[in-house]
Every structure is written in C-alpha cells, then in structure tokens.
Amino acid sequence: MFLSHLVHYFQWYIGGNAALMAETIAQSFRNSKVMLVGSIGPKLRSLLRTSIYVPEICNALQDEVHMILEFQKNETWGNHESPVANRFITSHDNSNTNLSMLDIFFDSVVEWKPDLVILTGIHLLDGQLETLWTERLKSVASKLRGLPPDVPVHLEVASMANKHFTTNLMKTLLPLVDSLGCNEQELAFLAHAGGGPHHDLYLTLSTVPDVAKITDIMQWLLQKYSDRLSRIHFHSLTYHLIGVLPNKWGNTNSSVAAGTRIAGQQACILQDLTSDKVKLHTPKHIILDSETAHVFDPLRPVIHWVKENVHYYFSPVLVCKKPLKTVGLGDAISSTALMYSEFLL
User: Between the CA of residue 50 and those of 23, 33, 42, 46, 56, what are the distances in Å?
Assistant: First the structure.
C-alpha cells in the first residue's frame, strides 16, 4: 500500500553510470560524438539526448530499473532522523549485473574507433557468484588487451563490499586501464582489499577525508600498476584530488577544477553558484602529505604538488547547502574532468 501510494510521486531520471556519463558529455560538450552501449529500454531512450548513438542491438523491450530514495539532513522517517544528506538505492538490473552487453560493447568500440573508452558497471558483479565474476573479469581483460594502446581507457568504480571480488578486479583490470575514478569509500576499500596503506581507513572515514592518507593510497596504486595506470581521479563531498604521471596527462589543473564546479552545480541544480547556496568545508591549513602543508588561498583554489614522480592537483568543492540531487554526481564529475584532460601519446 505504501509503495503503491508513492508511485504518484516517482520522478524518472536517466540511470546507470554509463548512461549518466554519456548524458553529461553529450550535454556539456556538444561537439563530441558519444556512443552508449548497454541495455537501453524505451523509457531510458526517451530521456537520453538524441545525439547519443545507441547501437540498434542495445534497444531492449523493457527498462532495467534502479529505485533511489534521496533524503536531506535532518529529514525523518518514523522515529529515525538523517544525520547527513544521503540516499538509499535498490535495483532490478539483470543485464548490467551480468555484463550481458560485454561483447557488444567491445565489438562496437572496435567499429566506432573512439578517442576515449569509459568502462562502468563492473562493480555490479560484486554480488554475483564467484564463478560468474571470475569469468566476466577475464573476458573484460581479454577484450581490453585487444584495444589500440593509443586510446585511453578509464575505469569508473562504485560501491563494492566483497573483498575477494575487489582484489581480483584490481589484479585483473587495473594493469589494463589508463585512468581510474572513485570516491573516498571506494578508494579506501581498494586499499583494504589490496593490502595497501591505511587499509583500515574504510572503517573510519570522515566528511573531510585526510588528504595525506588519500594521497598515500593513490601513490601506492599508481606505483603498483605503473605499467599503464597513470591517472586517478578521487572525488569526495568536500574536495577532489587528481594524481597523474605528467608525461601521460595534461591540463589537469583545469580538469580537477571543472569536476569540482559541476559537483556544486548539479547538486544545487543551479549554474551560477552563490554564497547563500554553497559553502566551503576546506580547512585553512591543509596537510597534503607527510612532508608538505599548505595554507589555503581562495583566490588560487587549485593546489599542485609533486610526490616522487606523481603530480597531484587538489581542488575544494563548493558544497551545496541544500542538495536537490545527489544521484549521479560522481559520474558527472568524472566524465567532465575527463573531457578537460589531455591524454599525451
């Protein structure tokens, strides 16, 4: 009875990481040509921009559905009160949880000849049987090896809880991608699963993750998978941090700034951000790593430093005081920042 009553208040939005990233690129970068491969039902197709190319074989008779309940800070549900703005997500998505479109995706990529390949949705294998996700990860790896080496591949991960699966994802896919996108929970769990520095950080994360600890984990990943992985884009509520090998990526200063800007714009659903709508949570004194500290200057918000051979770019987020939309922020952030990045051959 309760859910049937709520049906009248449902709002339909584009769902799925890949579709959200495709829509962001198509909307913000009008001269780009975007191909989206996945199970595309009639409702999703009607919401997507017509400029996004979807191979005919991807058209499905029925939509896969993610149901998302968003709530703001101090909102109540019965006797419970939310301490922060957050969301609850459940889904019915047989296609993506089985990577059913995997072969079609890579066949389409070979024919399309893109300048950038973005992989998303791999994390959905997390809840499947080990026999299935082992086979699927091996298939993704095999397909990645067949792509031209001069085409950058970005892997966008999302929430994972299976340590064994995450360890295998890292071993199988991270040596074969150029760029990685993740938030604080995902990066901390990668450190936990892979035996990296601060491996227990995922248990004690705060609103403003420790920059020095985040840098340590990024440094570890970039060194561990240095044969190819050369860029990590970390995004949290309060700040973003991109680490790159400078001989592989350029324009990172603008890239990280563009990602933080769209975070506030999308959360507030507002293009022009003003002080009554957003606020900074960045402390005045920022400990960048064990050897470097910085006094934050709002007139020069992007901070750059070098640790060994990795260049880091830090930018604070103008955090929306009353967010109207939180779903898809990470996808908008990563896709926007990627489009501002320059891959150096």
Answer: 10, 11, 13, 8, 14
The pTM of this model reads: 0.91
| 328: DSSP letter | T
User: What is the amino acid identity at position 48?
Assistant: L
For residue range 230-275, list pLDDT tens digits in order. Answer: 999 999 989 999 999 999 999 999 999 999 999 999 888 888 888 8
Contact between 312 and 252 (Cβ < 8 Å): no
Torsion sign across C-alpha atoms 191, 196, 199, 205: negative
d(CA 122, CA 295): 39
In the block, residue with structure tokens 């026999």: 131
Rounded to whole angstroms, how far apart are CA atoms 265 and 110? 35
Q: What does R_g of the chain's alpha carbons equal in angstroms?
A: 20
pLDDT digits (tens, 9 = 90+) for 110-147: 999 999 999 998 998 988 899 999 999 999 999 999 99
* DSSP-assigned states of every residue in 227-279: TT--EEEEE-SSEEEEEE-TTTEE-HHHHHHHHHHHHHHHHHT-SS--TTTEE
Active site (annotated) includes residue 331: yes
- Local structure of 71: helix, strand or coil: strand
CB 166 within 8 A of CB 129: no
Would you state the structure tokens that stand for residue 183, as one six-digit string?
Answer: 């938030």
User: What is the distance between the alpha carbons of residues 195 and 293, in angstroms, rounded to a whole number?
Assistant: 27
Residue 149 has a CB neighbour count (10 Å cut-off) of: 10
Sign of CA dihedral 311, 158, 334, 288: negative
Average pLDDT (312-331) is 88
| Cβ neighbours of residue 91 closer than 8 Å, sequence gap 6 or more | 64, 65, 66, 67
Residue 5: predicted pLDDT: 53
What distance in Å separates the CA atoms of residue 56 and residue 186, rounded to the nearest whole number?
A: 34
Nearest to 77 by CA among 67, 66, 69: 69
Q: Residue 1: which pLDDT band, with cuts at 50, 70 and 90? A: very low
The residue from 93, 126, 178, 331 that is catalytic is: 331
